[in-house]
Design goal:
alpha/beta, 3-stranded parallel beta sheet, disordered N terminus
Length: 303
């Protein structure tokens, strides 16, 4: 019972902690707060972690501050990207600039950051050139936003290239899609769960990552839709992760296709994993081993 209460404290406290992430002067105070929960933090730090959904340059946190937070939570490696701004045209100049910011962060923290490139398939020639350039710089995988749906024919050459590279494609999923109506803020070409199902069926050799079920989507609907798509991984990142979400995802997606991720929501995402009803082996898989297996397919490895 005491362990359960400690876990509840962690999850409850997380909501307050994350609100202070953009105020670096509060980090020392938060460290003291977390140290008071020594028994719980020992459990948190026992698990090696790969953050399968991380970013740079999308809020006020610097790469150094992201590493500082990751150190506190035992996150060994972060898969970083910088998608283009929502509503942007997505020109080659835009996606090259985003990828350059990722590359600079990789050079600053080469043992902690692995870059994921971004592009816009409506520019096929430039996209293929950027894939070659960025993978040559050490980037592994790709993170895309809403310029083209994942099952759009424009995307086919990109998917086929990533099959050859044996790398995963991480695609934004809607924030606020319910079984009844799509949130009006979402662009018309946002990739829905059923779009992932279609792309995965067309390309069973590809690896897709469905983004942030804790980001506001109807995660029950998404997990049910994706349960029979074995080449679609699901990351559990997001700031709106509700109680029982990971347990539900485990039931429909399975322990081998779930990926730990934060999408900047570091404390909530770690807290959700610790609070979930998982075995030791399942936590190790979701925190680290599943993404490690993805990286190994392309010849990468996290020590």
């Amino acid at each position: 019972m005491e362990e359960l209460l400690n876990r509840r404290k962690f999850v409850t406290r997380s909501a307050g902690i994350v609100g202070s992430l953009q105020v670096p002067n509060l980090f020392a105070h938060e460290k003291q707060t977390l140290t008071a929960e020594k028994d719980l933090m020992e459990e948190v730090l026992r698990y090696k972690k790969i953050d399968a959904h991380a970013h740079v340059g999308l809020n006020s946190l610097t790469p150094a501050e992201i590493i500082d937070i990751s150190d506190r939570l035992g996150i060994a490696t972060l898969m970083i990207s910088k998608p283009m701004k929502p509503g942007s045209v997505g020109t080659p100049d835009e996606f090259i600039a985003c990828n350059e910011e990722v590359h600079q962060a990789m050079k600053t923290f080469p043992k902690r950051f692995i870059g994921m490139l971004t592009l816009n398939p409506t520019y096929p020639k430039e996209s293929m050139e950027e894939i070659k350039r960025c993978t040559g710089l050490g980037m592994v995988g790709m993170k895309l936003y809403n310029h083209v749906k994942i099952n759009d024919p424009l995307f086919y050459p990109v998917i086929e290239k990533f099959i050859d590279l044996k790398m995963v494609i991480l695609m934004h999923s809607p924030i606020g899609k319910s079984r009844v109506v799509l949130n009006e803020r979402e662009p018309p070409n946002v990739s829905l769960p059923e779009d992932f199902v279609e792309a995965a069926r067309r390309y069973p050799e590809a690896m897709f990552q469905f983004a942030h079920i804790g980001g506001g989507i109807d995660w029950e609907d998404a997990c049910k839709a994706l349960q029979d798509s074995p080449n679609v991984y699901v990351d559990v990142s997001g700031s709106n992760n509700e109680g029982g979400m990971i347990d539900f995802a485990l039931r429909y997606i399975g322990e081998d296709r779930l990926l730990f991720g934060c999408d900047y929501s570091f404390y909530q995402s770690v807290g959700g994993m610790i609070a979930a009803d998982l075995t030791e082996a399942q936590r190790k898989k979701i925190f680290f081993e599943n993404y490690q297996a993805i990286l190994k397919k392309s010849g990468r490895n996290v020590n």
